[in-house]
Each structure stands twice: as structure tokens, then as C-alpha cells.
Amino acid sequence: MVSEQTKRINEAVTRAKDLKKASRGKMDMVFFAMVIILLTVGLIMLFSASYAFAYYNYGNSYKFILRQAEFAVLGVVMMVGISFVDYHWLQRFRLPWIGYIVSIGMLGLVLALPPMSEGFDYKRWIAIGGFSFQPSEIAKFAVILLFSYLIAKYYDKMKTFKFGVVFLLILLGSVCVLLVLEPHLSATVLVFMIGIILMFVGGVKMSHMAILGGVGAVGIVGIVLTGVVSYAMSRFQYWLDPWADATGKGYQTIQSLLAIGSGGLWGRGLGNSRQKYLWVPEPHNDFIFSIVCEELGLIGAVCILIGFGLLIWRGISIAMRAPDRFGSLLAMGITFQVGLQTALNILVVTNTIPNTGISLPFFSYGGTSLVMLLCQMGVVLSVSRSSSVRKR
Amino acid sequence: MKNETPTQQMWKRMLSVLLALLVLGFGVSGVSLLNIMILNGNKYATLAAEQQLSTTTIDATRGTIYDCNGIELAKSATVWTVYITPKDIENDDEARLIADGLAEILELNADDVYAQTQKNTAYEKVKKKVENDVADQVRTFISDNDLGSIIGLDKANKRYYPNGSLASTVLGFVGDDNQGLSGIEYQYESLLKGVPGKMVSSKNARGSDMPFNYETMVEAQQGSSVTLTIDSFVQYCAEKHLEEAIEINRATNRGCAIVMNVNTGAILAMATEPDFDPNDPFTVTSEYTLDLLEQYKKQPVDSEESSEDQQEDNRDDNTTAYEKAYNEALNEQWRNKAISDVYDPGSVFKTVTGSSAIDEGVVNEQSTFGCPGYIVIAGTRYHCHHRAGHGHQNLFNIFENSCNPAFIEIGQRLGVTRFYKYFKAFGLTQKTGIDLPGEANSIYYTDENMGPVELASESFGQTFQITPIQMITAVCAIANGGNLVTPHVLKEVTDIEGNITRTEEVSVVRQVISKQTSELMCKMLRSVVENGSGKNAYVAGYRMGGKTGTSQKISESTEGAMKYVASFCGFAPADHPEYAIIVMVDEPHGGNTYGSAVAAPVASAIMKEILPYLGVEAVYTQDEYANINTTVPTVEGTSVESARQAISAAGLSSRVVGDGDKVIAQNPIGGSTAPTNGTIVLYTEQDYQPEKVTVPDLTNMGVSGVSTTAASAGVNVEIVGVVSGSSGAISYYQDVAAGTEVDRGSVIKVNFRYSDSVE
């Protein structure tokens, strides 16, 4: 009994030492710098894109930027704070499972609630007090966390069809179905892709991946045929020819294209967008990048793309250097989530893919989602601290 | 918890996903951006500019038209276009408010305005050319109801003609968009219109301006101003007397008059009556024409048997016929008769035949002509208007008598070739080139198709047609020493800064006849006015020369209803010609339709007023002195005795009414004109009652008869048109109608003419 007790105490001491060591490591300054740079540029562009809209609609040009800046400060503080916390806490107390179940619950709840505003034909938001947030934001992280946890813990079983494919797919599918019902196509696609990437990196056999691909294709066809996402189909139609309904369903896309095209190589200059004068609807939200293009030109837009590229490359670098598989998968999942969301947003804004309603990380307006994003960046930084310790 | 490090496979797969993301996600994004921003950038930028930029045209202020003394004949003033933005109207109450409010202020139909509010457009013109005061009412309405985002006013220009119909056929008028449609407005459109400016501004999606300086403004450039050779006073006199003549002689096809500087070709007046008001050109003003138009309205509807449909058709036809006739009447009233209508010049043309013959040496001062009352040319017998024949005549006599056989003979002596050579040289085969639109081409026989018969009739001005402007231009050449000058109405062009950018020079086309011929012609034509058929054109002191003409409108006449054109063309002073005048009255229907009776008195009346005004020095004969008017001295307030003396000193007599010592009032009043030998009535009591007398009929009597009748009736007579005391002149018009009650002593103008002259 005594030895048993001693052993436990020793284990606890070792773990505490490990934790202390971990917290002492340096965070990845390149990744941190990229986050701060993108956040700063994002805030500037948000101000530029939003002030005309805010002025005409609310009589206050600073309405959006001030609120976003508050959340940015809060988010940066939380990011740095979280970076000091050992990410291993995230797999304690069944947190991955709790997070997943809470997400499922909230996704169910959002469906039961009435739409946040009249005139919207979708349900994506939950409002508590003065804040509102999208459960899909939580769900994205919950899936990353649960999958990282499960894959790291049962890495050996990943090659089995039963666990590596069926079990994980059921978990992933449940979330996706709820998202489709909102309907929130872009979130569905994003969550599904992140899940699949985690499974792929987590070691699912290539043959199983092929089966997954087939199932996915069948699923998409099935969804299309059942007409659950008929609204997405109409979007698909106006993706091919937005001018078919230039003042209606194609309007946002056309205005976005006009803004981007007006930018040319060097842009009109910061603050000089004309399309933000109520031409591009809600220029501070999903279509903020079109205003970025108009003001900063192709040069500016590519610089921002490179900035995101650097962030992702550094995130993956952190993931590869992570001391354990959980941390590695976690950092990778978060990084790819940001990367995918960025790519999808720009592809939508340029009308390369149908308009699904997806925001641009660090740029688009949205306080809670910015804080969520920065917290996740904190998690990646936390992983980087551990890897820097391991290196030594 | 296991703490195993990531496997090699995880690394590989992570990197492959990273690669896929960067290539498929970011790479494709980059290619898309390149495609939109660089390869198709212009296309999208153009589309963006189309929706963002709104171009507003700023009307250029049209240049002013001045007369030769700088009096404004046509000018532009600011007016406003009231518009609404129907798509921003929020509800029906607002639409009703706007419709009712604007309809009341702008005097429109509220339902029409309401219909405009129901459109889903951004710009609906409610009313154009709204005056400043009305625009202010609209502004008050806007601010009272906070409708600034829906109702707006745009600045525009409106053309004003301050003198109404004065010189309207010369000036022309402008259309809805201020574009010149006729006359000077049309002729000098490019100078007058200026360059419209534009304002390009950036608009947000709601149509209001972006709050920043994206505006590009191109200022409108005001049009140049045009100064004409037209003199308002001369024009006014010409119009006044022409209008009077048309009324007196019941002319049914209008008339025209031109006053021209014989040496420069400058047109001082060009009148067509009846004309129109260029401020309201689409209204027929001639009462005679309006009466004619009534016929189209009153056409009887078919008998009761005809079906309703047919009646309907008839009504439609009538409406259409009326509208058609109305439009024709409009076109006619806009037409400048002086340049756009051709006519047979008749005997006025004998000036051309005569001067050609003198210039060629075919006739001279010693030539004599016999007139048995007719002449036979190639089997065609031409009668002289004086059937008994003029007998033996010299060159002066044939002009004074306007003898047709003599001029036919002269024509035959000239022969076709030489006759046509001069016909051409006098500019009668070509347009004069006057700077006005719508000059008509003359109709004539060329030398190739002119036989002796055609030559005979052309010799005295029949069987060919020219415009009045051609006729007066030819007479100017005869009067000015032989030079054919190009008539013009433009004096100079002034740009917006006041610099003269163009001055019209005298343009001599050619010398047509010699100076000697010209001088002889002047003498003979003066004799025509002083001793011959042109007596009615006489102007005391001013040595008028000229020739009358009466031509039959053979092609338009019917048996028993002969149509005539009465005209006179002359110049003064005949010993040194400065100004020429032509008066043409088309289709007079008075008792006397001769040029000598219809047109010559008009020329006289006009010249009498304008020659002193134009600074031509008067040289009076003894007889003429007797007829000069005197300025009445002002004697009010003076003693009766000194008043009498003053009046007597002025060559007038007086009649004292009442027993007072001082003159309280007088008639005619001081400063007015009265004829010499007139009587001034002097009232000497404070509460005097003006003595009333009835104006007698003073027409159809000789000068002495008029004087006697007037004196016994207690009115003064101003004799117009003839030398006082000369016999044979008969009064034909008085400016105050017989039977009118007037104050004793009032001056009545009485026009005289010689009725023994026929041509």
C-alpha cells in the first residue's frame, strides 16, 4: 500500500515536473508573429470595409471596428494565456467527449430555436446575453479535439475498418447531418474535410480512404437528390451564371467580382474602395476579401495569401515537431481548419466555387468567432512550447 | 496516456495534405484573382464604374442675341427641372402627398404626377422649365415635408424673347432642349449653344453621392453672343406699318418688308406679318388664320342615317384635318416670307430691265418711246395698263408711267443673251447667300429656253419668280453705284469674355452696272416717287427713289378672282443712297390692290420714321416746310398772354377755355407733336372739364377738305404721306376712328395717297 502510494506520488511529481518543463518552453515566434500580422491587417481592412456600411446603416462608422477590436484584444490575451497552459489538459476529464456532446447538443438546440432574424431561412446562431455565436464554430474545434484524442489514443486501431472508418465516420457524420439541417453547407464541408484529413493523417488505410471517398460521393449525391439543400442548388445555379439574376441571387457575387476586378494590379489604395459604398452587401462579413482586393490590388491580395500560407506552413511545422501524436494532430487540425477556411472563402469570393457563406479568418467581422480562433491559435502555440522543450 | 511521437507516415500525410491545400486552395485562389483582376480587370472595372458613376449633363447657357445697338432680342435665363425619385417613395400616403403637392404648385394634373410616383425608377421629370419663384415654392414644399431624398430640382436654361414677336421670323425659336429650330437661332446654333458641361459623381448603391471627392466636374461653356445688324427701332417701325397695311388692305397671304443698307448689305429690319411669338411658337397668332382654322372644326357631321361608327370616323377625320391645318398654319407663321417665298416682282423689276439697257447702251437719256397702249411680240399682244397709251415718252416718263410696252421694247432691244447676262449678274439666278436658313430658289427662264415672248413678259417682271431679298439686293446694286453685295444679318460674334471673335465684312459679289448707270437710275427712280407712280412713297425731305409693282398671280388666280402681289422697292436719299426698303403685300383684297396704293404708303411711313432716326439729313422744299410738324411748347402754369405768344411763336394757334389768368392744362400737351397751323386748347380754370369733340370721318377727301373738316370739328390733323397742299392725294386712313369722342385739340393722323397712280 505504501509503495503503491509512493509510486503515485512519484508519478504526480514527474507529471508536475513535465508540466513545469512544458510551460517553460518558448512558443513559436514565427507563428505568433504571423497571427499578430494577419490580425492587424485584418482589423485595418475590417475598418476600411465596414465604415461606409456602418455609417449608412447605423450612423456610426466605428460600430464594427470598435467591437471587433475589443474582441481582438481579449482574444490575443486569451491566446497568450492558453499558450502557457499545457494542451494535455484538453484530454483530461473526458473533455474531448464532453466537448463533442455539448456541440451535438447545441447544434440540436439551434435547430429548435427560431431563426435569429426575420427573413433568414437558416438557423446558425445562438444568442446569450449580448453575445451571439455559431455552435458550428464550437463543433469544428470539438471534432478536432475528439479526433486528435481518439486517434492518438487508439492509433493502433486506426488501420481497422471498424474503428478507423466506421466509428469515426459516425461521430463525424452526426455533426455533419446536424449542420446540413441548419442548413450550413460551408460549415458542413469544412468539418467534414477536417475530419477526413485527421483520419487520413491518423493512419486510415489508403484502401479505406478510397471507400470513404466513394461513400462521400454517394452521400453528396444522396443529399442533393433528397433536396435537403435545395437552397444550395440554387446557389450552384447562380455560381455558373450570376448574371442570370444580377439584381437578386447573383447580386452579391457580381458585386464581389466588380470589386475585385476594380482592384487591378496595385488597387485603388487603402480606404478607396467604391464598391464598399453599399454595393457589396455586408462588405465586412464573408466578402471582405473583395474589398481587400479592390483597395490593395493583386499585389496586396497575394501578400495576404502568402501571409496565410506562412501561418499554415508554420502550423504544420509545429505539428510535425510536436512531442506527441495528440499535440501533433491537434495543431495540424487547427492549422488546416484555418487554411481550408481561408482557401474556401477566397474561392467563394472569386466565384471559383459556389457561394456557401464562409468567413475569412482574422478579417471577417464576428467577435466570438475571432476569440474562438485566437484561442485555437493559443492551443497551437501551446503545442509549440512543448515541442521546443522536447528539442532541447 | 501514451506519449508516442508522431510517426513518419503522419508526417508524410500531413505534408501531402499541406501540399494539396496550398496548390488546390491557395494556388487556385491566386489564379482566380489573376484572372479577375488582371486578365478581366478592365471588364469588371468598367462594369463597376457604370454602376458607381452617374453623369449629369449641365446645360450650357445659350448666347444672347443682340440688335445692332446692344438691345437684347433673345436671352437665356435660369429655370428648373423638377424631378422625383419614385423608387425611394416609401408608401402610398407619401406618393399621394407628393402628387397633390407638386400638382398644385406646378399646375399639373395630380393623377398624372401620381402615375409617375408609381414607377420604380430613380429619375422622373415632373416638369421642365419651372421659373425661379415656382421653384422656390417647390423647395419650401420639400423642406416642409422632408422630401429631400425624393424630390429634386435641376438647373436648366430657358430662352426668352423680351420683345415678344419683334423680328420673330428672323430670330426663329428654340425647341424643348434649347436647340435652335429656325431663324438666327438655327443659323448660328453652333455659336450660340455653347458646350454642355457634365458632372461625373460616384454614387453608392442607394443613389446618393459618396461622401468623398470622387466628383469630376466639367464646367459648361456659355455660348457666344451674336449681334445682329437688325435695329430694334427700324424693325419695330417696319412691323408696325406693315401690320397696319395688311389689316387695311385685308391681305390674306401675309406681307413682308426689308430695310437694308445699300452699301454694306446689312439688314436693319426684316419683317413678316402676321408673325408669331417665339416665346410661344406653337400657338397660331393670326386671327385671320385662326378663323380659317375654325372651318375645319365646324365641318358638318354626316346625316342621321350614317352609323355611329361613321360619325366617329368623321369626327376623327375632322380632328386630324384640323390638326393638319393647324400644323400647316404653324409652319407658315414661322416662315420668313422675305427670303422663303418667291413672287412675281412685277413692275419693280423694270428697274433691272432699265438699268441693264442703260448699262449696255441700248437706251440713254435721249431715247424716246411711243406707247399706243399695246405692243405685239411674236404674235402676242401685250396691253399697257393705260389702255389709251402713254403716247410719246422719254426715259424718265417710261419709269414714271411704268409703261409696259416701252419696257417690252427695251427688253427686245437687249435680246435674250444680254438680258439673261444681267439677270444673272443681278444675282437673280442664285440665292443671295444671306445668313438665314430657308432661302428659296428663284424660278426663271434660262437664256436657252427663253423666247421673245418670255423675254417680253420678263421685261416687265412677270412669268418668273424671285424672293423679296433678291429683289432688294438687286435694287441696292442699282442704287449704290453698281455693286451687288451679299445681304447679312450678323454684325459680330462676341465670346463669353466679351471679345469680338468675328465681324461680318461687307461682301461685294460683283459690279453689275457702271457708276454712271447707277446715278442715272437713281435720278429716274426719284422722279418716279416725286412725279410718277411712286408718289405714295414720298417722304418729305428725304428724296426717296423707288418703283412700285403690282403682279398678277396668274397661276393661282381664278376667273373673276384675280390675286395680286403689291410691292414697292426703293431707297433714300436718292442723290446719295444709304438705305433701301422693300414692302411686299401678298394678296390684298381692299378696293385698291396696286403696289402704289398698298405698298408704297407703307414704305413711306416706315422711311419717314427711320430716316431721321438713322441720321439721314433732311432737306426740305418750301412746300414740305408747310407740312412739318411742330413740337408743342409747354405753357401750363404760365399766364394766358405769354402762353398765347409762345404758341404763336411755334407756328400754332390757340383757343382759350374759361376765364382764368393762368393756363391750368393744355391739349395737345407740351412736348408732343402737332401739325403747323394746329390749334392748342388752353384751359384756364381749376375744375375745367375737357371739351369733348367727335372725330369726323376724314377719309376719302383731299388735303384741304381734311383740314377744313378737322378744323370745324375741333381736332388737329397730322398729314401723313404727301406734301401738304398738293392736289390729287386722297386720304385713306385715320388713326382714330370716326365717331370717337376725344378732347378738343387732339391730333389725328391721316394717311394720304395718290389714287390716280395705278402701277
List descriptors:
heterodimer, A: 392 residues, mainly alpha, two-stranded antiparallel sheet, 13 helices, 2 strands, 71% helix, 2% strand, B: 759 residues, alpha+beta, Penicillin-binding protein 2a (Domain 2), Beta-lactamase, seven-stranded mixed sheet, 23 helices, 31 strands, 36% helix, globular
| CA radius of gyration of chain A | 22 Å
> Termini of chain B, distance in Å?
137 Å
Average pLDDT metric of chain A: 82
Roughly how much helix do the residues of chain A carry, as a percent range?
A: over 70%
**DSSP strand tally of chain A:** 2
Judging from the principal axes of the Cα atoms, what is the shape of chain B?
Answer: globular
Structural class of chain A: mainly alpha
The count of domains of chain B is 4
Major pleated sheet of chain A: 2 strands, antiparallel
Instruction: Name the quaternary structure.
Output: heterodimer
Point out poorly predicted stretches of chain B: 301-307
Number of helices of chain B: 23
Distance between the termini of chain A: 37 Å
Low-confidence region ranges of chain A: none
Q: Tell me about the largest β-sheet of chain B.
A: 7 strands, mixed
Q: Helical segment tally of chain A?
A: 13
Share of residues in helices of chain B: 25-40%
- C-alpha Rg of chain B (nearest Å): 37 Å
In the CATH hierarchy, the architecture of the largest domain in chain B is 3-Layer(aba) Sandwich
Protein architecture, described:
The complex is a heterodimer of chains A (392) and B (759). Chain A is an all-alpha fold and 392 residues long. Chain A has one domain. Chain A is 71% helix and 2% strand. Chain A contains 13 helices and 2 strands. Chain A has helices at 2-24, 29-58, 63-84, 95-112, 135-153, 161-181, 185-201, 206-226, 230-240, 251-263, 288-321, 325-349, 367-391, and strands at residues 126-128, 131-133. A two-stranded antiparallel sheet of chain A has the order 1-2. Chain A is globular. Chain B is α+β, with helices and mostly antiparallel strands. Chain B folds into 4 domains: 55-163 and 195-223, Penicillin-binding protein 2a (Domain 2) (Alpha-Beta Complex), CATH 3.90.1310.10; 287-328; 340-618, DD-peptidase/beta-lactamase superfamily (Beta-lactamase, 3-Layer(aba) Sandwich); 629-754, 2-Layer Sandwich (Trypsin Inhibitor V, Chain A). In chain B, 36% of the residues lie in helices and 22% in strands. In chain B, strands 2, 3, 4, 5, 8, 16 and 17 form a 7-stranded mixed sheet that branches. Chain B has a 5-stranded antiparallel sheet with strand order 10-9-21-20-19, sandwiched between helices. Mean pLDDT of chain B is 84; it is low at 301-307. At the A-B interface, α2, α7, α10, α11 and α12 of A face α1 and α2 of B.
